[in-house]
Write the structure tokens for this entry.
Amino acid sequence: MIVQVLLPLVLAFIMFSLGLGLRKQDFFRVLKYPKAFSTGIINQMVLLPLIAFGIIKVFGFSSDIAVGIMILSFCPGGVTSNVLTKIGRGNTPLSISLTAVVSLASIITVPILVALSVGHFVCVDAAEVNVTRLGISMFLITAVPVFLGMLLTAFKPLAVEKISNGVSRMAIVLFVIIIVAALAKNWGVFYGNLPTLGPALVLLNMVMLALGLIGSSLVKLDPKDATTISIESGVQNGTLGIAVGALIALNATEALPPTTVPSAVYSIIMYFVSVPFVLWRQRYAK
């Protein structure tokens, strides 16, 4: 029930709430911020997976946990990164645009990269992961809800204005429920890996936040853009990571599989690192 029905529905609803806040111009606004957009894309789609791979090698995780960490590194920022950017007084339109573009690209990139990760860490033929099936599943539970949310906003803006706050709050509640369910169903795996998984994921979060600032400094971005790039680099859509981890499980049961645990843990601990970072960055807002 959780894996087959509840998890995809929760993710779809969260993506629908993201769509309510998007406009078609958000996909083209990145042209106004070429340096910032390029820096964000490189950090999120190139550096993040590389850093995650390096951390896996250093800590020596089991194959399932390693694949789960790589899945996490392939995920876009999501609604949370947009909210934290707003709180940190960063460039919220840039954050929304980056989330929109990376989320769209992930429909293609995630299935391919996940298949390669499974082939490397599990030591089986990457064909074991049905890339087409995973891509279609991601399209149905991410792109379609986002499009429906955007469509509703375009044709019923007044109605969306009334319901958007309630939908966002409900998305947060569902997000918490799915994280708690993931940890509860995998308590043995979670507890057994926490001594190494916790520090490793905290390190991943801290390194990506730092790389966001370093990369922004190298290309001379202003403080608001730098804050945005850092948050987009360090905050990931954990719900999507959990969903993908469940979808690729070869022996899925009612309990969420170990490949979901890194995303579930990261969805919690990233706040302990990212929130203080966001509050610190407020002072740099002009």
